[in-house]
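Page 47, continued from p. 46.
Same chain as before, 130 aa.
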Amino acid sequence: MNASPSIQGAESSREPTAKMGFLALLYALPVMFVFWLFFGWQRAFAVLICTTTVFFVVSVFWNLRRHVWFWITIGFAFLLQIPFVLLIPWANFSSHFSAFPFALLDYFLVYGCVRLVQKFMTRSSYQIGA
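Result:
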C-alpha cells in the first residue's frame, strides 16, 4: 500500500535540500580547478569554500529565485568573496578543519546580505503598493 500523503510530502520537500550539497560541490569544482591551475591549491580551497557557501545560501533562499534583486545580491555576494580569497593567508592553515570558522563567517556574511536586501525589498514593495 502507498505511504500516507504526509510522508510523501515530507520526502518531496526534502529532495531539493538532500541534493543541494552535492550540486554545490559539483558546480564549485570547475571554478576550484581553474584557481588550482593558476594560483595553487590553497587559493583553490578558499574558492571552493566561498563558492559552496554562496550556493548553500542560494538553496536557503531558493523561493526568491524569480526576483531579479535576488540574483543581483548573489552577484554582489560573489564580489565580496574576492577579498576573502585573496587577503586571508590560506597557506597557514594546518588542516582543512581549521578553515571551518572562516567558512561559517562567509556563510553568515552572504546570508546577511540576502536577508538585508530581502527585508528592504519587501518593505519598499509595501510602500509602493500603498
